[in-house]
Amino acid sequence: MLVRRPNLTALCAFTAALALTAAGCGKAPDRSTSVTREAAPGRTAYPLTFDNCGQKVGFTRPPSRVLILNGTSVGEVESFIMLGLTGRILANVQHYGVSDDPSMVAAIKALPTRGLTTNKNFDVPAEQVLAAKPDLVVSTWSGGFDARNGFATREQLAAAGINSLVNPVNCAMGKPNASSAEKEALRHASIESSFQFMTLLGRIFDVQVKAAQVVAGLRARVRAVQAKAAGAPPRKVLIAYPGMSMMNANGLPAVMTGGIYDDVIKAAGGQNSFAGRGEDTTRTLNAEQLAAAQVDVLVVGVFTPDEKPAEEARRLFAAYPQWQASKTGTYAVVSDGAYLGPMNAWAVEKLAKVIHSDG
User: Fold this and answer.
1) CA atoms within 13 A on the CB side of 56
2) With 80 as the cut, is the pLDDT of residue 329 above it?
3) Helices 259-267 + 344-355 axis angle, to 10
4) Helix 259-267 vs helix 191-204: angle between axes, to the nearest 10 degrees?
5) What is the chain's alpha carbon radius of gyration, rounded to the nearest angstrom?
6) Is the Cβ–Cβ distance between 32 and 175 less than 8 Å?
7) Which of 94, 196, 289, 301 has the most CB atoms within 10 Å of its CB?
8) Please, what sign has the CA dihedral across residues 212, 267, 289, 312?
9) Where are the alpha helices (DSSP H) in the chain?
10) Is the predicted pLDDT of residue 3 greater than 50, yes or no?
């Protein structure tokens, strides 16, 4: 999900893992840390230790040289930006070049990269990570520390005195021996999962009050949309990323379902056209199934800044004229707001305006 086209093997593996969320979109708490949104904000007491994806992580002070791995995500770097932690970033590799909050594009672009490059598996190889001498390496998924892909393992980093952190809801992603609790957290990824990561960062960096304020503001925006949509019959919403067609075995746009995708749509007052489908939907969906879908609202996901969502919408409407959305020309455009990260509120608001545009 970067501006650069990803290595297909790496990105397909990542999206296949994302599809595991298809089993549901509940709001189960993240069991990978003791941090919950109910915890009262305060000052962090160091040393701070907790379990992260089965690995003990310890901090004697707030990290000051953070390296943020790619993982085809921007949710982590955007969380750092929203919490005012950019001064703590040694190097960032996350970048889409497009966002539901346009100010994020410039904010991410302004961050240092220290000339880091990615390997064929589309993330920073071990030797570059170790040479940069960070004090914390952040990955959106456990696979970011997989030696088989040329990445530094968490054990290697620990031996070099470097902490590592996986976004807790994604512990099971890229982790062959994931626990049942980690798998459950991934299946039930939701907007709250985005908030939980910011809360965790608040604790690690001793900005708990700031994190609580940011989360409260974002949660209030989501709840305001939900209140307006209450009682209205949900319309069927299809979310598709044409620029990610490499994810589908039949060359179709990547249709997203389950987990946080369903939760974002539900918060906006809609229902995913493929809600309840199996975890392989994104990869296996065929043209016949797509044609048979009930689609009142089309959501075109933007993957790179050079895409033209209006043209993509017209192309899909022409290919599937039987959709109600095709007959009315009803569509919305989102980018990072549909994924794990702090932009969920923006996506919910954008979708709600279209879902309820005709009352």
Assistant:
1) 4
2) yes
3) 50
4) 110
5) 20
6) no
7) 301
8) negative
9) 8-18, 75-82, 103-109, 126-132, 154-159, 180-187, 191-204, 208-229, 259-267, 281-284, 287-292, 309-319, 324-328, 344-355
10) no
**Can you tell me the distance from the alpha carbon of 297 to that of 331, in angstroms, rounded to the nearest whole number?**
5
Q: Could you identify the residue written with the tokens 């919910």?
A: 348
Sorted by sequence, the CB contacts under 8 Å of residue 135 that are 6+ apart come out as 63, 64, 65, 66, 161, 162, 163
- Please list, in sequence order, all residues whose beta carbon lies within 8 angstroms of the beta carbon of residue 326, skipping any fewer than 6 positions away: 295, 298, 316, 317, 318, 320
Residues 6 or more apart whose Cβ sits within 8 Å of residue 102: none
Give yes or no for residue 314 having a pLDDT over 80: yes
Confidence of residue 29 (pLDDT cuts 50, 70, 90): very low
Enumerate the β-bridge partners of residue 91. Answer: 67
Element (H, E) at 240: strand 235-241
Residue 119 vs residues 124, 160, 309, 312: alpha-carbon distances, Å: 6, 22, 30, 31
158-175 CB burial, b ≥16 within 10 A, e <16 = eeeebbbbbbbbbbbbbb
Q: What is the DSSP string of 275-308?
A: TT--TTHHHH--HHHHHHS--SEEEEEP-STT--
Structural domains in the chain, CATH included, are 31-223 (3.40.50.1980), 231-355 (3.40.50.1980)
